[in-house]
Specification:
The chain has 126 residues and is mainly α. 67% of the residues lie in helices and 0% in strands.
Length: 126
């Protein structure tokens, strides 16, 4: 299965996982600092934007800025819908700081994939 198709399928599966997890009470996990849920949001939406971007056609020199922006926008919009969804779940609430973490994670994830794919291109021969 081509990487782009697999990445798209994994993005959809990850979105379903996020929806499922946000439909339930958040388990008490103590990483030893306050705001640890923001770190989880950062990672979850970083992964989502990487998978979304991975589903797009990559040029030899990497992804175009419009593709990066689209992946970030799609992940951020999904983060908005997830926060709204959580407002209907008992013991969960809409949190604007979670949304900030979602958007920042999406941006960092897409940029990380761009950097990783640029590094993986073959070096020019001399």
């Amino acid at each position: 299965m081509p990487f782009r198709r697999l990445s798209t399928l994994l993005a959809l599966a990850w979105m379903a996982t996020i929806f499922y997890l946000s439909s339930h009470t958040m388990p008490d996990v103590d990483l030893g600092f306050s705001g640890q849920d923001k770190l989880l949001h950062l990672g979850a939406y970083g992964l989502l934007s990487m998978l979304l971007l991975g589903g797009m056609l990559r040029r030899p020199d990497g992804y175009r800025p419009t593709q990066i922006a689209l992946a970030v926008l799609l992940a951020a919009l999904y983060g908005c819908s997830d926060e709204w969804h959580q407002s209907f779940v008992p013991s969960r609430m809409l949190d604007s700081l979670d949304l900030v973490a979602d958007v920042l994670g999406a941006l960092l994830g897409a940029l990380a994939l761009q950097i990783l794919t640029q590094r993986s291109k073959p070096a020019p021969s001399l």
